[in-house]
Each structure stands twice: as structure tokens, then as C-alpha cells.
TrEMBL record:
It catalyses: S-ubiquitinyl-[E2 ubiquitin-conjugating enzyme]-L-cysteine + [acceptor protein]-L-lysine = [E2 ubiquitin-conjugating enzyme]-L-cysteine + N(6)-ubiquitinyl-[acceptor protein]-L-lysine. The gene is Dtx3l_0. It holds the Pfam family DTC. It comes from Alectura lathami. The keyword Transmembrane does not apply. This is E3 ubiquitin-protein ligase. Pathway: Protein modification; protein ubiquitination. It is found in: Cytoplasm. GO terms for biological process: Notch signaling pathway; protein ubiquitination. PANTHER family: DELTEX-RELATED. InterPro entries: Deltex_C (IPR039396), Deltex_C_sf (IPR039399), Deltex_fam (IPR039398). GO terms for cellular component: cytoplasm. Residues 3-83 form the Deltex C-terminal domain. It is an enzyme of class 2 (transferase).
Length: 83
């Protein structure tokens, strides 16, 4: 589809996991991230080691519960407002 760097060519998928807090702001962010997913904004296809792969898009996701902003985790006081 639109956005694929080589239409008609295969690409490898992946396993993606992200975390949001179970509170009002986290649930609101989940709704917005779902809309972004439905619009094709969550992932992108990029070349990696000679093959096309699905990777995270430009929208940041928290992939760890801890480690802070530097490790895509919490705590990150601004994340829910910035995403």
C-alpha cells in the first residue's frame, strides 16, 4: 500500500509491545494511539540488513516500564502530554 518503499515486495513483520499507565490520561492516550494506528501512523517499513522490516514510526511509544525517558520507559513525566 501507500508508504511501502517497494510496493509488491515482501517485508518482515515484528513483535511490538508498548505500555501506558492505567489512569485517565493513559486511557485517553490509548484512544489517540488507536486512531494513529488506524491511519497508518504507528509503524513504517525500513530496510534492515538487506530486507524490508516493519519498525516503529515517528510516534514515540514506551516499550519499558522503567529506565526513564532515555530507555523508552517510565518515569517520564511529560510523555502523556507530548505523545
Amino acid at each position: 500500500k501507500v508508504g511501502h518503499p517497494h510496493p509488491g515486495q515482501p517485508y518482515k513483520g515484528g513483535y511490538f509491545l508498548a505500555f501506558l499507565p492505567d489512569n485517565k490520561e493513559g486511557r485517553k492516550t490509548a484512544v489517540l494511539l488507536k486512531k494513529a494506528f488506524e491511519q497508518g501512523l504507528t509503524f513504517q517499513i525500513k530496510p534492515c540488513n538487506g530486507e524490508e522490516r516493519v519498525t516503529w514510526g515517528l510516534i514515540p511509544h514506551k516499550t519499558c516500564w522503567d529506565g526513564g525517558k532515555a530507555r523508552n520507559g517510565y518515569p517520564d513525566a511529560q510523555y502523556l502530554h507530548e505523545v
